[in-house]
């Protein structure tokens, strides 16, 4: 069984803008061999999906899709 999670084009642009502009203390610094500084979380609920993007600095951005 395969599961795929998706952020639509409009929300993807919001995420890219947030990644570029939030106040980040690790931007531009070495982030490890795989550069895993950004985590995407998808939480399914009975009324929709909560999509959260977390930077390695700890700041979070939640998309409002409900």
Structure overview:
This protein has 66 residues and is an alpha+beta fold. Helix content is 20%, strand content 30%. It has one helix at 9-21; strands at 38-45, 48-55, 60-63. The chain has a 3-stranded antiparallel beta sheet, with helices on one face. The chain is globular, with a radius of gyration of 13 Å. The model has no long low-confidence stretch (mean pLDDT 87).
SSE order and pairing:
Blueprint: H1 9-21, E1 38-45, E2 48-55, E3 60-63
Unreliably modeled segments: none
Order of helix and strand elements from N to C terminus: HEEE
Q: Structural class, from secondary structure content?
A: alpha+beta
In whole angstroms, the N-to-C terminal distance is 26 Å
Biggest sheet strand order reads: 1-2-3
General shape: globular
Radius of gyration: 13 Å
Secondary structure tally: strands: 3
**Share in helix:** 10-25%
Q: Give me the number of helical elements.
A: 1
> β content, as a range?
25-35%
Largest sheet: 3 strands, antiparallel
In short:
This protein has 66 residues and is an alpha+beta fold. It has one helix at 9-21; strands at 38-45, 48-55, 60-63. It has a 3-stranded antiparallel beta sheet, covered by helices on one side.
Using brief descriptors, characterize the structure shown.
3 strands, alpha+beta, 1 helix, single chain
